[in-house]
Amino acid sequence: MRGAAGGEEALWLAERGWSVQAVDIAAAPLAAARERAAALGADVADRITWRQADLSAHPPAAEAFDLVCSHYVHTAHGPAALLEALASAVAPGGTLLVAAHHPDDAHHADTPGAHVSPQQAAAVLDPGRWEVLAAETATRTVDAGGHGQGHGHGHSHPMVGGSPVSVDTR
Ligand SMILES: C[S@@+](CC[C@H](N)C(=O)[O-])C[C@H]1O[C@@H](n2cnc3c(N)ncnc32)[C@H](O)[C@@H]1O
Q: Where is this region: Disordered (predicted)?
């Protein structure tokens, strides 16, 4: 699991029995996510290891994970470097799941170059090694308010919110 932040994916997976390594470049979100895990009890907390790292510069161990997922992680190095790092960590037969803001999403126009379409993401992957299961753009409506629900815009709006790419190694 990558780009831990609130730890949503790490907690979701650990609650369902996965052993998870959660990575974020920043210390504060990792600490907050670790607290949330602890509050859920040792069964969940003990399944997650937390690591502070810049994934583009320090990729996770090669071919070590059955599932690598990245939700809305945008790095200064650009999406290609991050995707290559994440893809390299997937074990043979494993799955890479990426969700990102679409470059056409006007709400993220202030960070040009940081976002990636599903087609651009899929193109980073070696077709000899990867089978693309889904590369789709979805629009979702987000509510005003909290984390992940409106990004502080203070109103509901339709958002080109996802560039999910789900791929399996051959
Ligand atoms: C929108 S948040 C992800 C939220 C998370 N998926 C969740 O649901 O809780 C994006 C996170 O990516 C992290 N991030 C950005 N660039 C990174 C990088 N190069 N390596 C690791 N984490 C990075 C940020 O610190 C931030 O916490």
A: 142-170
